[in-house]
Every structure is written in C-alpha cells, then in structure tokens.
Amino acid sequence: MLNAQEILEKKFEKSAFGYRTDEVDDYLQEVSAAVDKLQNEKIQMERKLEVLAEKIEEYRADEDSMRAAILDARKLGSSIVKDAQQQADGIIADANAQSAKVIDSIQMRAEREKMNLSRLQKEVATFKNQLLALYKNHLELISSLPENTKAESPASSVQKEEMPVEQEAVSTASAEETPAVSEETASKPEEAAAAEESIAEERESRFGPLKFGAGYDLKRDR
C-alpha cells in the first residue's frame, strides 16, 4: 500500500499534449494528505483496539474471577442452607420428642387422677351406703322402742349407778354400829343394785351398742 510520501515522490514522464504538470502535482498533494490522514486514523484505531483488547482480557479475567466467586458463593450458600436445614430438622425433632414426652406424662397423670377420682367416688359411695345402712338400723332400733318408755337423764343414771355403792357403805356402817339389824333389811340395797344391773343389761341387749362421734371408725367396727 502506498503512503503519502511515495505519492508525493511519484514522477511522470513528460509528453506532448499531456496533462499539465502543476495540476497533477496539486492532485498528488491532496491524495497524499488524504492518505496520510487515513493512516493516522488507522494508527489511532489500532491503538484503541489494543486498549479495548486489553480491557476485554481484563474483563475476561474478572469474569473468570466473578464466575469462580459466584460458584464459591453458591457452594457456600448451599452448605449454609443444608446446615441450617439439618439444624432446623434437629430442633423440630427434639421439640417433637419433648412434646411427646410431656403429652405422655400429662396423659399418665390424667389417667392416675381419673383412677384416684374413681376410687374416691367408690369409697364415698361405699361409706355413704354403710352410713345410710347404719342410720337405718339405728332408726329401726329407735322405732322399736316402746312409746311409753321415758328416757332417763344421764344424771339420774349416774345417781342410780352410784346408789348401790353408797347404800352398801351405809349398810356396812349400820351393820357395824347396830349388829341387831335383820338380814331382810340388809339385803334390800343388794336387791336394788341387782335389779338396776338387770335393767341395764336388758336395755343393752335390746338396742346394742350405739356408736357415734368423730372418733368412730365404721370400717374398724366391721
């Protein structure tokens, strides 16, 4: 390819009736200037291409680095997600196991409480039936009492119980002081005590021992 200098140095042979020399020289100068401009532009474009090529290489290197970084990030992210999933599964499994234990414990406790409640209900029903039977028995015994029988006061019964002892002491003293007392008179206190004891035994045999009070144990009596 011709350059600007070669175009300017080009020489043509002269002949008759040929081109004018000055016009040819002017044209060659214009052509040389155009070629020189194009060559300069070409050089600049080549330099720009070199710079762009270097940038492309840098971008390619950065792209490789970024690709490797992206791959590493993906691997790390996958590992983190996997570990987190395993930890979450472990936590969920532990929570399920703990909740199952708590539920089982609560159910067992509820069953025990239910059994205790049932047992207490049975005991209460049994005690109630026994108590009602006892009251019924006592009511029957009370109903069987004669209507004309008068209840004796505790004081009178105590006096009656103490009376034979006092009469015996008096009779003993009288016997010591007056030996001439007849056997019939001395035997009257003993006959009264025997009659009182007979009445008490008959009353006990008819009505049985009536047991009441906070200290009375129904089960022990049975």
Which descriptors would you attach to this protein?
2 domains, 222 residues
What does the model show?
The protein folds into 2 domains: 4-110; 154-210. 82% of the residues lie in helices and 0% in strands. It has helices at 4-9, 21-143, 154-177, 183-186, 188-207, 218-221. α3 (154-177) packs antiparallel against α5. The longest helix is centred in the middle third of the chain and has 123 residues, at 21-143. Residues 161-189, 202-216 and 218-222 have low confidence and may be disordered.
Secondary structure elements and pairings:
Blueprint: H1 4-9, H2 21-143, H3 154-177, H4 183-186, H5 188-207, H6 218-221
Helix pairs in contact: 3-5
Count the beta strands.
0
| Largest β-sheet summary | none
Distance between the termini: 140 Å
Q: Structural class, from helix and strand content?
A: mainly alpha
Question: In angstroms, what is the radius of gyration?
Answer: 70 Å
Poorly predicted runs are 161-189, 202-216, 218-222
In total, how many domains does the architecture comprise? 2
User: How many helices in DSSP terms?
Assistant: 6
Task: Provide the residue-averaged pLDDT.
Answer: 74
The fraction of residues in strands falls at under 5%
Helix and strand sequence: HHHHHH
Amount of helix? over 70%
Q: How would you sum up the global shape?
A: rod-shaped
